[in-house]
């Protein structure tokens, strides 16, 4: 029992860190552009596949940053080529990004086939049996945890301590207000997509290293991002991080004590409760309508 | 880094701007004259057909919308073509890859899905990513009844219980979520599909991945099978068009355009959103039952997966959202391209083409192809619709 709790805490902490990475990019794009980017999961999948390809020829330490850069550019390209032309219509943006996501599955199936592709960012695992925790935690999970907090820290610094970052924050609070103070909205949105892409790429590499890359791996992260963002409050980065930990622990709890098949169900119950009684989420605010 | 990217963006923007100019020139020099020539060619035909259309407009126009001569001809022609497909499709089929009747039957089922999606999502603007849950509920109910209750149950019993199940599941999804405004509804429906999929694969009593093979197909005769699918489809199209053209449809569109205005007019939008979802669940259930009768197998891959929900959306988008008949045409076009024209390619390539097409329609022709054709035909006579 005590061992179970130890496992729960450890695994929950690791998983939640990755969930936070997944959700932040999603919430940022929603906060700034009012766009729900349903292709966010596809970018995560892209991260896994690009890393799998690169790590065949170069060392993982090189492939990791290159992957992040590639996915950031892909995300930026998605915005420039497709989303910016339709973003004024929420419904069309919705549909366009989800079609991109589905098409990416077909592309991956066509290019790599349906079987999972294994990859490792860093191999090996640490055995915690002597300490009473019955799980072999892999080094990748530790790396994921560290990278996640590194990314969150950098993002926090960028958003709160640089002019560039503060303009992103301003645009997410009130578009008109930001424009009146001389913020170039288009540039801010482009930057947001770039950052969200980098975060998605990072998450993709870590998810791929723990579970392998498959053509449908974008679905679950996307659903998780939804749930986390609603609970945390749409557009709030702090809320997303906290909600990621809530959901991560909740899922780990169900897996440990209830059973694997019920993994998402408890999260969904929490989601519905939040939607009914607290639709603004933990740290959400009313949008400043102009 | 950022500045180079921004520079690239500027370059890209200018290039696309130029492209826009070029498109404008093409429109001026090429498309406009063609359109005018077509107008001149078609206008006499339109006038010739006017009396028939007017007779219809006077009698039924109130219920299903008025049409010009050409539009009337298009509708009558399509209905006749669909009703006589059992005769001409086996002859035309070999020219387009064979198996045309099967494709048409499948397209009929998908047309039901696309139209049902449209009356809810297209009209109210509350996009559902989870409509496959509704058809899935119907399909699984049929299978469970046959497996666990009595294999000899008549189709009338299983079908009506299944449609009821779809309605119940629809209300379960709609009641808590449709009170909310904005994107939450879409998110919930999306998560609902994933959850339903997980349930079907996690519990062996729900058949797991292989699903249930026990339900029988309606018939093996391709001609009969086609009519089993096409006639309910036409009836549903009729019913939904009637609903969409009534006051109900007007309120649904008003919800999409300005929900607070609807509230301000003393109409409860939530009530009507739930109505539209219920209205959409019933044909979804019928479609689910037909799909069981078509495949004879109920499994997550044919019934539940998210791709199914997105596919019906794609059909509706290609045809033109919020027009009922647009999604019908979209479904036939989609399935025809998928199973006949792109017949020789592997599945991923076919779908890549199709999703590409959907994206093009979304960006360049938001109203959809069939709605575009429809309005063009309506404008031939000189008056724009």
Automatic annotation (TrEMBL), chain A:
The reply on keyword Hydrolase is no
Top-level lineage group? Archaea
Give the record's keywords alphabetically. Answer: Amino-acid transport, Cell membrane, Membrane, Transmembrane, Transmembrane helix, Transport
The compartments listed are: Cell membrane
Q: What is its main location?
A: membrane
GO cellular component terms, alphabetically, are: plasma membrane
GO biological process terms on file? amino acid transport
State one molecular function term (GO).
transmembrane transporter activity
Q: Where are the membrane-spanning stretches?
A: 12-32, 38-54, 61-79, 91-110, 139-159, 192-210, 222-247, 253-277
Question: How is it placed in the membrane, per its record?
Answer: Multi-pass membrane protein
InterPro entries registered for this protein in UniProt: ABC_transp_permease (IPR001851), BCAA_transport_permease (IPR052157)
The record's similarity note reads:
Belongs to the binding-protein-dependent transport system permease family. LivHM subfamily.
Q: Indicate what this protein is called per its UniProt record.
A: Inner-membrane translocator
UniProtKB/TrEMBL annotation, chain B:
- GO terms under cellular component: plasma membrane
Major subcellular site: membrane
The answer on whether this UniProt entry bears the keyword NADP reads: no
Q: Which InterPro entries does this chain map to?
A: ABC_transp_permease, LivM-like
Bilayer-spanning residue ranges: 70-89, 95-114, 126-147, 153-175, 187-206, 226-253, 274-293, 313-337, 349-365
Top-level taxonomic group:
Archaea
Any one Gene Ontology MF annotation carried by this entry is: branched-chain amino acid transmembrane transporter activity
Q: Which CDD domains match?
A: TM_PBP1_LivM_like
Q: Where in the cell is it found?
A: Cell membrane
Q: How does it sit in the membrane?
A: Multi-pass membrane protein
Keywords attached to this Swiss-Prot or TrEMBL record, sorted alphabetically, are:
Cell membrane, Membrane, Transmembrane, Transmembrane helix
Protein known as = Inner-membrane translocator
What organism does this protein naturally occur in?
A: Natrinema versiforme JCM 10478
């Amino acid at each position: 029992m005590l061992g179970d709790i130890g496992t729960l805490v450890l695994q929950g902490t690791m998983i939640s860190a990755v969930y936070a990475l997944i959700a932040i990019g999603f919430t940022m794009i929603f906060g700034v552009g009012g766009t729900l980017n349903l292709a966010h999961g596809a970018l995560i999948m892209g991260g896994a596949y690009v890393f799998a390809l690169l790590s065949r020829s170069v060392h993982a330490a090189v492939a990791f940053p290159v992957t992040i850069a590639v996915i950031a550019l892909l995300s930026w390209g998605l915005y420039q080529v497709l989303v910016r032309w339709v973003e004024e219509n929420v419904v069309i943006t919705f549909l366009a990004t989800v079609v991109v996501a589905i098409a990416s599955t077909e592309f991956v199936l066509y290019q790599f086939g349906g079987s999972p592709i294994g990859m490792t960012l860093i191999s090996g695992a640490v055995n915690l049996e002597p300490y009473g925790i019955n799980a072999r935690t892999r080094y990748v999970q530790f790396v994921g945890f560290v990278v996640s907090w590194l990314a969150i820290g950098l993002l926090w610094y960028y958003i709160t301590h640089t002019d560039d970052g503060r303009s992103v924050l301003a645009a997410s609070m009130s578009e008109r207000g930001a424009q009146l103070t001389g913020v170039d909205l288009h540039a801010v949105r482009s930057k947001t997509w770039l950052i969200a892409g980098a975060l998605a790429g990072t998450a993709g590499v870590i998810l791929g290293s723990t579970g392998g890359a498959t053509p449908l791996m974008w679905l679950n992260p996307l659903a998780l991002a939804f749930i986390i963002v609603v609970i945390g409050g749409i557009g709030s980065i702090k809320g997303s991080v906290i909600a990621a930990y809530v959901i991560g622990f909740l899922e780990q709890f169900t897996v440990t004590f209830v059973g694997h098949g019920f993994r998402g169900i408890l999260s969904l119950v929490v989601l519905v409760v939040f939607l009914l009684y607290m639709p603004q989420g933990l740290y959400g605010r009313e949008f400043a309508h102009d | 880094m950022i500045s180079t990217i921004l520079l690239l963006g500027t370059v890209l923007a200018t290039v696309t701007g130029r492209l826009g100019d070029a498109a404008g020139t093409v429109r001026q020099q090429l498309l406009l004259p063609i359109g005018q020539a077509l107008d001149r060619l078609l206008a006499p035909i339109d006038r010739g057909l006017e009396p028939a259309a007017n007779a219809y407009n006077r009698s039924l126009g109130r219920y299903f919308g008025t049409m010009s001569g050409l539009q009337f001809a298009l509708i009558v022609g399509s209905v006749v073509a669909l009703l006589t497909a059992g005769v001409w499709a086996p002859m035309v089929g070999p020219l387009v890859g064979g198996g045309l009747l099967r494709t048409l039957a499948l397209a009929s089922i998908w047309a039901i899905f696309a139209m049902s999606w449209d009356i809810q999502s297209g009209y109210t603007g509350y996009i559902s990513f989870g409509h496959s849950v509704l058809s899935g509920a119907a399909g699984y109910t049929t299978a469970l009844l046959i497996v666990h209750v009595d294999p000899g149950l008549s189709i009338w019993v299983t079908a009506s219980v299944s449609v009821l199940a779809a309605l119940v599941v629809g209300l379960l999804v709609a009641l808590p979520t449709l009170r909310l405004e904005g994107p939450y509804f879409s998110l919930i429906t999306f998560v609902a599909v994933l959850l339903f999929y997980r349930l079907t694969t996690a519990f062996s009593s729900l058949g797991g991945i292989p699903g249930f093979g026990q339900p029988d197909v309606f018939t093996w005769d391709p001609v009969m099978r086609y009519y089993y699918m096409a006639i309910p489809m036409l009836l549903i199209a009729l019913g939904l068009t009637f609903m969409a053209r009534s006051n109900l449809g007007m309120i649904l569109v008003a919800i999409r355009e300005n929900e607070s205005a609807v509230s301000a007019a003393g109409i409860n939008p939530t009530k009507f959103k739930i109505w539209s979802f219920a209205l959409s669940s019933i044909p979804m259930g019928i479609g689910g039952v037909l799909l069981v009768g078509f495949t004879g197998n109920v499994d997550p891959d044919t019934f539940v997966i998210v791709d199914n929900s997105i596919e019906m959306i794609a059909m509706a988008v290609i045809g033109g959202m919020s027009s009922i008949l647009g999604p019908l045409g979209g479904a036939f076009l989609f399935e025809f391209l998928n199973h006949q024209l792109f017949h020789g390619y592997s599945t991923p390539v076919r779908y890549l083409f199709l999703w590409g097409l959907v994206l093009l329609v979304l960006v360049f022709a938001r109203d959809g192809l069939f709605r575009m054709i429809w309005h063009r035909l309506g404008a031939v006579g000189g008056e724009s619709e």
